[in-house]
Specification:
By secondary structure, this protein is an alpha/beta fold. It contains six helices and 15 strands.
């Protein structure tokens, strides 16, 4: 990564059922992030569309281009590197849960299509993203003015090989837009984020949506920004809020020198493709 410190913001916003209300809110939060000194901002998973199967096709039918254009404009207007949460992306008859990344000029520099779809049969919850979405196939790392970063989406976090591959490809900060729920959130959210940070000794950003109490799918919230030792630099509760943390890129090398697990991989015994 660059040796220059920078400020990272997570916009933990609640997605509304009215598209324009959500987009106006996102714009305000990103402006607040920039005014607070942020250089990088991260939005939640499906920030523009309520996270419920009944809404996915309806919102996707409008196409993703309007949301894409607005994210590009927000990045440029606020001089932010913007990790745009995720949105329902249309390509022909296919629908993807996609994260677009823009530089401070508003140019798209990366796209991550959620690889592992949320198909679960939990007590009190049956949810199958694969009934609506097509899984992505690409590991996403990208270069920025602040160094090499990676992006994944929500359920991807449960597959450690993906994050090892990103780290092997040079990502030293990984962003995870997400919407863990009221069952998986208390049980596994913080644990999963901290382990992916410590597994690979990278900065890790869990950008969750704020809770919408009474909605069919209630997000756990609790966005977090973690350093490469797994130490929380900032943490939210379930409400809408802006989370800010200073990122010191030198911390990656420092942790890897102190506890060099990532540097001592036994590639003669096991290997994740880089």
């Amino acid at each position: 990564m660059s040796d220059k410190k920078f400020t990272l913001a997570v916009c933990q916003l609640r997605t509304e059922t009215v598209y324009e209300e959500t987009m106006e809110k996102a714009e305000r939060m990103l402006r607040e992030a920039a005014d607070s000194g942020a250089d990088v901002a991260v939005l939640p998973e499906m920030f523009s569309c309520p996270y419920d199967r009944q809404y996915f096709r309806e919102f996707a039918s409008r196409g993703h281009q309007d949301t894409w254009n607005r994210m590009s404009d927000w990045a440029k207007a606020n001089r932010l590197l913007l990790v745009g949460g995720s949105v329902p992306e249309t390509e022909g008859d296919r629908l993807y849960n996609s994260c677009f990344v823009f530089d401070a000029e508003g140019r798209q520099i990366a796209r991550h299509r959620k690889i592992h779809l949320f198909d679960v049969d939990l007590p009190g919850m049956r949810f199958h993203e694969s009934h609506t979405f097509t899984p992505g196939t690409d590991i996403t790392v990208f270069d920025t003015d602040f160094g090499r970063m990676g992006a994944a989406v929500c359920f991807d976090v449960r597959f450690p090989e993906l994050f090892r591959a990103m780290a092997r490809r040079g990502a030293e900060l990984i962003c995870l837009p997400a919407q863990f729920n009221m069952t998986t959130g208390p049980a596994h959210w913080e644990m999963s984020l901290r382990m992916r940070a410590t597994d690979n000794e990278v900065f890790f950003v869990g950008a969750a949506a704020a809770r919408y109490e009474g909605f069919s799918y209630e997000c756990w919230g609790h966005s977090m920004i973690l350093d490469p030792f797994g130490t929380p630099l900032a943490a939210a509760d379930e409400k809408e809020q802006l989370l800010l943390a200073e990122i010191d890129p030198g911390r990656v090398a420092e942790v890897r020198a102190q506890l060099p697990t990532f540097l001592h991989l036994r590639e003669d015994v096991y290997r994740v493709a880089d």
